[in-house]
Amino acid sequence: MPEKDKIISNKVKQAGIFDFKELYKFCYTWLSDEEYFVSEDNYTEKILGDAKEIEIKWTAERKVSDYFKFRLKIDWFIAGMKDVEVEKMGKKIKMNKGTAEIKVSGFLVKDYEARWETGGIMKFLRGVYDQYIIKARVEQYEDKLSEDVDEFLSQVKSFLMIEGKR
Question: 105 pLDDT exceeds 70?
Answer without folding.
Answer: yes
